[in-house]
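Translate sequence into structure tokens.
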Amino acid sequence: MKIAFTAPMKPLNHPVPSGDRTMGRLIVKALDLAGHEVTIASTFRSWRKDGSDQIQGAVEEEALRETERIADTWRESGYRPDLFLTYHLYHKAPDWIGPALADRFDLPYAIVEASRAPKRQKGDWAFGFAAADAALSRADAVAAIHNADVECLKAVVTPDHLGVLLPFLDASPFQQAALIGKPPAQTPLKLIAAGMMRQGDKTKSFQVLAAALAHLSKDAYHLTIVGDGPNKDHILQLFPPERTTFLGALPQDQLAAQFASHDLLVWPAIREAFGLVILEAQAAGTGIIAGDTFGVPDIVRDGETGLLSPEGDAMAFAANLKKVIDDPTLSDKLGQAASRHIADHHTLAAGAARLNALLEKTLQNHMERGKRMPA
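Result follows.
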């Protein structure tokens, strides 16, 4: 199948790495694995930090000019995709391009990862909210990336068009790193945290982690921190230097080795959609201590591959850590189960199968839409 792809939240060639960019690239990789021909229709980014009718109205005008450019290119080249796929839209990053091209060329239109915050229906983001809703209503199929988003999407997407496409990863490098074998866990536990060091929710996650660790005895753990960003100095001051190793940002191959060599990934996941590092660590055979935010319970089996606590609750997070400190064999059990869990449910092949099912639903619903259209 020929698929035209766009990612209005963050294009795949964006220079700043993030879990969102990685997930977009993984979707394209999984589609390639499934035998589809993916073309990046546009690298236009509709996301804006600030919202208003004026700001987002101007973005819409830019998007529609980009739509004309793409349409002209397709007509001149004779290219016509079988389906248009948009990855990640919401009120800050609506999709005007996909719906317009789908209407113009009579294409099935699908969305992967959509979220909806009804409180944004009024105020500075009302324009973008309405535009995102229009795209969701037009789509032939919409896949949330976790179950927590489904409830809000039900208000604008009918049940036969709505589903969940659980996240996945290229597990191979992490599984290979796990083959080195781990010695049995013992205190001090080897903990690892990985996250971008920017203002907002990422910094809040590090703050909750620091508060939780403050409740543990000094000889209970050693923490390795992976990441970098403008808030690095502030974040590193939160952790005792004698029990902390800071590695900075690491390439993927080194990250896999680090996950495999630690006992637990510790990440409070404040406002995290699901946390790609949580998938990566499990693939490397490392158990999880995390907050139960949004999609985290969809990828971590609480009590089996990790221990989850209420979002932002440092005391509960510390209590889960103490369970493993008191019984280090629990770390080994979590890690072994985590490795099996990823192999069974969250590999690139599993993602390809889920995407194929979404594409089939999109085609079927598009056919049904055609039958309902007046002649």
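Note: Residues 105 and 155 are 27 Å apart (CA to CA).
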